[in-house]
Amino acid sequence: QVQVVQSGAEVKRPGASVKVSCEVSGHTLFEVSMHWVRQSPGRGLEWLGGFDTEEGETVYAQKFKGRLTLTEDTSTDTAYMELSSLTSEDTAVYYCATDSGGSSVSAGYFDHWGQGTLVTVSA
Amino acid sequence: EFVVTQSPGTLSLSPGERATLSCRVSQTMASNNLAWYQQKPGQAPRLLIYDVSSRATGIPDRFRGSGSGTDFTLTISRLEPEDFALYYCQQYERSLTFGGGTKVEIK
Fold first, then answer.
1. pLDDT in tens, A25-82
2. Which of A20, A49, B63, B77 is most exposed by smallest CB count within 10 Å?
3. How do residues B62-73 score in pLDDT, each as one tens digit?
4. Of A45, A95, A109, which is closest to B50 when you measure between CB atoms?
5. Interface contact flag, B35 A61, Cβ < 8 Å
6. Which 3 state secondary structure label does DSSP give A103?
């Protein structure tokens, strides 16, 4: 059974960057396709990006291109989400979640979620 | 972009009643690329339904997904106390977008 554990809450100043980690257990990162979704009161659930198994590359939602970087450390089975040039609009709970297709196909929906990481952007 | 709209915003029902949640997509879906999630306070979303009508592992059969084209429905046949929660639909036909959610609350 896949388990996903995220790093703790962060408070950042406007203009700063934040990096959130997501550690996988029960499977290796090679066996899952990790995605990131955020949730804020004003904008609900938003998909940020993730690994597209069929394309063999990381894909980003258009609105986050240029300031979102998703990386993985396969030696520790940890995925990372780094968002730069933060504004108050980026205040949200950030989730990592695994694509149900695993490493073979891109299903497009998510079956295992981390517990969420609250990122607060405030001066 | 596929815009996803859910209605109603809030559904007030009693345990044992039937819940019908609506999800409308702004463009016709050629494939069954729609999922439903349940979310409780302080928890991550939980996958209920994928491919419009397939139940995820461990999801009871009182949850049923249906629909095609632009209009989709999640039906909970008889509400149990643990079913009062937020529900989201998500399309994965083109990119990935979620609806705004429907809250099912106790009347």
1. 999 998 999 999 999 987 789 999 999 888 888 999 999 999 999 999 999 999 999 9
2. B77
3. 999 999 999 999
4. A109
5. no
6. coil
